[in-house]
Amino acid sequence: MRILTLALLAQALVFGSGIEAQSVPTLEIELEGGIVGQSRNDVQIPNDLSGTRFSLADLAGKGPWPAARLYLTWNFNSRHSLRALLAPLSVTESGALEGPTAFAGETFQPGTPVDATYQFNSWRLSYRYRFLESQDLDLWVGFTGKLRDAKVAFRQGNIYSEDTDLGFVPLLHLAADWRVFRNGNLLFDFDGLAGGPGRAFDSSLKLGYDLGDRWRLTLGYRTLEGGADVESVYNFAWLHFGVASFVFRF
Predict the structure, then answer these.
(1) Which SS3 state, helix, strand or coil, does residue 170 take?
(2) Does the pLDDT at position 6 exceed 50?
(3) What is the DSSP letter of 77?
(4) Per-residue burial over 111-124, b = 16 or more CB atoms within 10 Å of its CB, e = otherwise
(5) Mean pLDDT throughout 93-106?
(6) What is the pLDDT at residue 197?
(7) 135: Cα separation from own chain's centroid
(8) Of the four listed, 12, 17, 163, 229, which is most buried by Cβ atoms within 10 Å?
(9) Contact between residue 38 and residue 239 where contact means Cβ atoms under 8 Å apart
């Protein structure tokens, strides 16, 4: 009788919702698009007395601008997967400086517009392990290798200067897929790490709706925050995205 009771309890836990277990596609392609704005973008290059700290958000504006990214995920079994991300981001705007600004070896003056460029391209490869797999909730943990391709540039007439940064950043990866109603899922995604002179956080919360077995439509919010405080550069930015995406699974 005790064995029968335990078997019935297990069956209730697994099948009690009446919703079939979430399937695991072999390949997923997600194209995400939307708009991005910035609430903070403070820059000082170099990060010493020879550089002027200024707000790129005040100079170039807070947006919004168009943004897009592409995810490619290979689930080589129900537990293990690899995911690649291509996330280009580049904004150029004109604005006026509040005072003389020393930036990357040149000095720019107020009174004449400055063309300011902010680039933060992100190329990533993640390994993910699905440590919880149920009919309503899937949870992943893993690590991400990020290649950061960043640039801040000023142009004022014939005067031009820029600072570029191409580097590797290791990140922790977390994700969740919670089925809140039939065909509807709440999706959480996080790449991030903090420590030493800097930090990087990229997280999103989206509502997904399945349009059959192969297609999913999502809508939600993404935030990207972080930066570095080292001898050569000070730059901390906080970006906000309103996003929608199409996911194709096969």
Answers:
(1) strand
(2) no
(3) S
(4) eeebebbbbbebeb
(5) 95
(6) 87
(7) 27
(8) 163
(9) yes
